Amino acid sequence: MVPGLKVLPYDLTVCKTESVSDIDFSSDFFFAGKTDEEISLVCKTEDAPEKTTEREDGWRCFRIEGQLDFSLTGILSRISAVLADAGIGIFAVSTYNTDYVLVKARDLDRSVSSLKEAGYVFAE
């Protein structure tokens, strides 16, 4: 089964902050991760904190549609393999429900084309 995909209409930023207080938790779309080494944030570019220790703008994203059961295997692997074969790097984020795949904005059209050629369907 090939899952459906949906391109999200946001320009995204991937960055690192020094404190979780730099993150606007009222934003409607973001991913935050904190480890013993860093605090990472993926957010809409317009919502990126002013204070970051590192920052990379110019990302776009597509979501695997539907809620993925934890017993499913290989979904993200197959998508990343299609994109790797096309020479496109990714930044992936997983939530409880599904996975999100970020690609550089310059690679979005080529990513969509490559995935469509591999049988993936994109929601409008």
Compute the number of strand runs.
Answer: 7
What is the H level of CATH, i.e. the homologous superfamily? VC0802-like
Distance between the termini: 20 Å
Main CATH class: Alpha Beta
Q: Which residues sit in consecutive blocks of at least 5 with pLDDT less than 50?
A: none
Rg: 15 Å
Which structural class should the secondary elements be placed in? alpha+beta
**Biggest sheet overview:** 7 strands, antiparallel
The arrangement of helices and strands along the chain is EEEEEHEEH
Arithmetic mean pLDDT: 90
Helix content: 10-25%
Can you tell me the CATH architecture? 2-Layer Sandwich
Number of self-contained structural domains: 1
- Provide a count of the helices: 2
